[in-house]
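Duplicate of #3305? Posting structure anyway:
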């Protein structure tokens, strides 16, 4: 069965503002003036919690940054869990595109480096959980993307064939994952990197979800 696998943060939904708010809450609890900006620092959010904490602590001049990151990481997850969908929104057209893919007979799955429990909670709050046949998070398996195992697991769990699958993502991690598995990769250009992401030379790119169903049909045609 043909399967379309989606990254979550920065691909299906713009989660940056809520992620950055969680990091800023940690800085505030330490009495630091350092803050990450929802617009200027959006790209940092998509590199994960530790990357956000590291950036803030560097700006604040913290002496032992790595130790501070480990001290605050669980607190960051807690803040995020409590305010996971305050500002987060699906990218325009995402829901309609997924519905069109499913109507055409494609399986759909999520493979994300967000912890599984948070990913499950977010897709539920966004109202899109029924649109996916599988969800694999950062801690579902012992490894995470770009290791191929989580991607493969997402396709298998969805009831698909890895050799007849495609990855939709937004970062170098997604590109490397697709290369490791040996499947096509579509990278979105509506994220913080814009068209700069094209330096990774994906098999295709998209600036709008409106073109995704046709794009998938071209790259992953249905078998008769």
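Output from current build:
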């Amino acid at each position: 069965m043909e399967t379309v696998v989606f990254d979550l943060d920065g691909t299906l939904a713009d989660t940056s503002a809520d992620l950055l708010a969680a990091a800023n809450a940690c800085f505030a609890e330490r009495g630091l003036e350092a803050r990450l900006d929802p617009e200027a620092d959006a790209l940092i959010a998509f590199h994960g919690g530790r990357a956000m904490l590291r950036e803030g602590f560097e700006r604040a001049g913290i002496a032992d940054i790595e130790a501070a990151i480990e001290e605050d990481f669980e607190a960051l997850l807690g803040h995020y869990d409590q305010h996971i969908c305050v500002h987060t929104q699906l990218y325009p057209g995402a829901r309609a595109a997924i519905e069109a893919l499913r109507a055409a007979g494609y399986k759909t799955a999520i493979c994300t480096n967000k912890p599984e429990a948070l990913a499950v909670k977010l897709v539920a709050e966004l109202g899109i959980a029924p649109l996916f046949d599988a969800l694999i998070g950062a801690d579902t398996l012992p490894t995470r993307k770009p290791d191929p195992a989580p991607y493969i697991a997402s396709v298998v769990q969805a009831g698909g064939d890895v050799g007849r699958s495609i990855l939709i993502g937004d970062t170098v991690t997604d590109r490397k994952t697709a290369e490791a598995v040996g499947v096509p990769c579509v990278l979105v250009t509506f994220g913080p990197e814009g068209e700069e992401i094209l330096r990774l030379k994906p098999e295709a790119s998209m600036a709008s979800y409106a073109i995704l169903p046709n794009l998938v049909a071209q790259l992953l045609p249905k078998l008769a």
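Confirmed duplicate; merging threads. The chain has two domains: 3-14+88-219, 16-82. The longest strand covers residues 107-111.
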